[in-house]
Amino acid sequence: MLDGGEDDNHTVVNNLGRAIVKKISVKLEGKEVLCLDDADIYLCYKDLWLTDKERKNVAYYGIQSENTAKIRVGVSDAVVATQPDALIAAAFGNRFVIPLDFEILTDHGPFYQMGLTDRLSSELIFNDYGRVIRSTDANAIYQTNNIALEFDIVTHQDLARLMRQQYMGQTVVLYTRILHLRMIALNKSDVTWNINLNTPARSLKCVLLLFEDPAPGAMGPAFGRNSEFYYNPRITKEQVTVEGIPNQLYAQGMHPYQQWDEIVKGFACKDSSTDMSTYFRNWYALWPDFRSSDDQKLHGSGRRLENTSEGVTLPAR
């Protein structure tokens, strides 16, 4: 339920299913395997790299036209006769899905909970109003109602028996552990930014740097968010130092003309909707890739970090 206060034209940000979640914590057998504070920033960015066809078919997530969003939340200036906006809105209404698409659930076949000694649990913390609502009224609020868990089940007895036997044996479950290290406030006028990471890792896949501009938007400082815009600070050179050894990715540092080649290793697919011009203009991020292979399905090919006092240093300018 969305209450725009005195603003009858209030609406929600795009990709609401991602944007509404502030933090995600996933635990497997009591061990935290995914911890994402500011999960909305990362997951909204990740979804920008879906194919054009995929983005057209995830209205349930909240990726849709602005008019469709307005119809779904009951905004007064929505054009309710427009098609296919009206048909999509009629199908989904104001119901949105929060995808629980951690790769243990998506990449390893049917999930068999009873085969684990402890539960696979997901903890979600919802976001602030200003990260979800687009409104000129600073008192606009939203509420979540009728939360339900939706999932597919295996009813074929032979397949269920095979899954049970697999989990009762020695099952290897591969996944990429994603950690949000911290959010750093940087000054645009600084000549050099020094970003340090000292978390040990058996296989460091990459470091992803996303930038948001806190300057007030057209809707005001509290409700001016564009969930699909990421700021480009126009970094001219990035030097990657690993455990005290400089220039570990590029001998002369990473320059702007190399940034696109790095980011596509982590996100791009053959038919991705993102192109180079859109990346540099609206969807910018830095992705220093530490793997020895670009194969997204391969685990364990990253850089080993043992000297946590040195860690990884990313001076950028």
Structural key phrases:
3-stranded antiparallel beta sheet, 4-stranded mixed beta sheet, single chain, alpha+beta, 2 domains, 317 residues
Helix-strand layout with pairing:
Elements: E1 2-3, E2 11-12, H1 16-19, E3 21-28, E4 31-37, H2 39-47, H3 52-56, H4 66-73, H5 85-92, H6 103-106, E5 120-126, E6 133-134, E7 141-142, H7 157-168, E8 178-179, E9 193-197, E10 201-204, E11 209-210, E12 241-242, H8 256-266, H9 276-281, E13 285-286, E14 303-305, E15 312-316
Parallel strand pairs: 4-8
Antiparallel strand pairs: 1-7, 2-6, 3-4, 3-5, 9-15, 10-14, 11-13, 12-15
Helix pairs in contact: 4-5
Describe this structure in words.
The chain has 317 residues and is an alpha+beta fold. The protein has 2 domains: 2-168, no CATH class; 183-317, no CATH class. 21% of the residues lie in helices and 17% in strands. The protein has 9 helices and 15 strands. The strands form 6 sheets. A 4-stranded mixed sheet has the order 5-3-4-8. Strands 9-15-12 form a 3-stranded antiparallel sheet, with no helix packed on it.
- The gyration radius over C-alpha positions equals 22 Å
Count of DSSP-assigned helices: 9
| Shape annotation | globular
What number of domains? 2
Would you kindly provide a brief summary of this structure?
By secondary structure, the protein is of the alpha+beta class.
